[in-house]
């Protein structure tokens, strides 16, 4: 069995697909009785085997579904994709405050990882926008929230499945805009990119580092959900429905699937950097890279954000998520070389007080 990263392979001793939280609890107890670990798996979008095991693979697809939608919350199964959540909430005029760029990942998976989106500078991570969770802990189903079993609630959010299996979630909702205005702002360097992200009053904001004829170019995307003027330096604007904007990666993914790039190994390097040191680390990293080091469909993302109250996400103060999302395309750097580059990035980040993001691909030392 492989995950999206396509680097690590493991064959589970057994795969179970529970349809209820009690069935999930039973699977975890049975695994423990046989001395096996139980690892939850949603859509397998981890990149270095985090959703794989040689023990018991707990397939959460049987726990998918949106059970209730109200004006401020949605109750969903952990195996539900964010696409399915949005399909249920948007017709009623609501949306989760934070969405991942790619909607075909599961609620349980991203809450376990943290879950960063373009609105995380305002709302924090997806894990910080959960009202309550259903979790299997030590083989028993447990309901938890900030007021009920807060120890469990804090341990599983951002805890990549190490402290319990999330089976259901109550998600916060906010009113959804009908249309958005996406504005492209070219930036001189990483410092300018981060300044635009911090100072622009946009609901959704993100950044990329792209190859260009002159080397690497920095670009911010500021998305306005309501009335407002494009930020200074805007070179392009595009008006979209909110639904199309939220699902903007779907055509790109379809093209990557057709080209075979979606099935290539994805050695992703992702680190949280402290704000004051972020620009220097980003520029030092990209200065030593070529497009072959990134891959034909690789992407470099930069996102200034706030984490919120998620104790398991030990991000530094004023964090910046720096993501070098490599693809091991034919004719480009090897998987081994990309993993070595990820290790170097992590070492560079740790030297200034940064930390890894748990869904990345970094080989262990020693």
Summarize the structure in words.
The protein is an alpha+beta fold and 366 residues long. Strand 7 and strand 8 (140-144) form a beta hairpin. The strands form 4 sheets. An 8-stranded antiparallel beta sheet has the order 14-11-13-12-16-17-15-18. A 5-stranded antiparallel beta sheet has the order 4-5-9-7-8. A 3-stranded parallel beta sheet has the order 1-3-2. The chain has 3 domains: 14-60, Uridine Diphospho-n-acetylenolpyruvylglucosamine Reductase, domain 2 (2-Layer Sandwich); 62-175, 2-Layer Sandwich (Uridine Diphospho-n-acetylenolpyruvylglucosamine Reductase, domain 3); 179-356, Vanillyl-alcohol Oxidase, Chain A, domain 3, CATH 3.40.462. Helices cover 27% and strands 28% of the residues.
Name the descriptors.
27% helix; Uridine Diphospho-n-acetylenolpyruvylglucosamine Reductase, domain 3; eight-stranded antiparallel β-sheet; 3 domains; single chain; five-stranded antiparallel β-sheet; alpha+beta; Uridine Diphospho-n-acetylenolpyruvylglucosamine Reductase, domain 2; 366 residues
CATH topology of the largest domain: Vanillyl-alcohol Oxidase, Chain A, domain 3
Contiguous runs where pLDDT drops below 50 for at least 5 residues = none
Largest sheet: 8 strands, antiparallel
Average predicted local confidence, pLDDT:
94
* SSE succession: EHEEEEHEHHEEHEEEHEEEHHEHHEEHE
Strand content range: 25-35%
Number of separate helices: 11
Count of extended strands: 18
